[in-house]
Design brief:
Blueprint lengths: L10 H6 L4 H25 L1 H4 L4 H19 L6 H23 L1 H7 L4 E5 L2 E2 L11 H10 L8 E6 L5 E5 L11 H7 L1
Antiparallel strand pairs: 1-2, 1-3, 3-4
């Protein structure tokens, strides 16, 4: 941190500092590597980690927040550095979305799939391992959707957002309670 008596206002120094152009090339390389790596890690962690936001959205918020915060807090960081980082992050995001739209193979890697977890009142446990979700989590998501009996559910889908879309029978038969007190007795 600069001492108050050492500070002098210099607009050129505020924007460019003492850095040469190779610093900006390094920033470009760093942003590309970190953004790509973090998107893959967030995808690997799973839907529950990001909730309703996509992995790229989470990364965008974190990366921009850090760049903006540093620029405002540390006077030794020339403004062109965070401006470059923020611009590159925005460009990366646009390219990422464009490639995901144009290329199905990339979208399969970077975007989680929608999984059917319940069909005709029965759990599809073979699908649980794809997104590393367990039976108790499925029951929790069903209860959050207002379901008390597994037999009420015609179809339930684990969405890209980590939420569960539930389609109920019009006239269900009420059996197989998923309330915690009933599940404890069954096991």
């Amino acid at each position: 941190m600069i001492e108050g008596n050492e500070y002098s206002f210099d607009l050129f120094q505020i924007f460019f500092g003492d850095f040469n152009l190779t610093v900006y090339l390094e920033i470009l390389i760093r942003v590309i590597i970190i953004m790509a790596y973090t998107i893959l890690i967030i995808r690997w962690i799973g839907k529950r980690a990001v909730g309703g936001l996509g992995s790229a959205d989470i990364l965008l918020i974190i990366a921009m927040g850090s760049a903006v915060g540093d620029a405002m807090l540390y006077p030794t960081i020339p403004l062109l550095i965070p401006i470059s980082v923020i611009s590159l992050i925005a460009i990366f995001q646009k390219i990422y979305v464009y490639i995901g739209i144009k290329h199905e193979s990339v979208r399969k890697i970077t975007h989680p799939t929608v999984l059917k977890l319940v069909e005709n009142g029965k759990l599809l446990k073979q699908n649980f391992t794809i997104d590393e979700i367990d039976e108790n989590e499925v029951y929790m998501l069903l209860r959050e959707a207002g379901i008390q009996y597994l037999s009420e559910v015609e179809h339930a889908y684990y969405e890209q957002s980590g939420q569960l879309s539930v389609f109920k029978y019009e006239n269900p038969i009420f059996k197989n309670s998923i309330l915690p007190e009933n599940l404890k007795h069954e096991k």
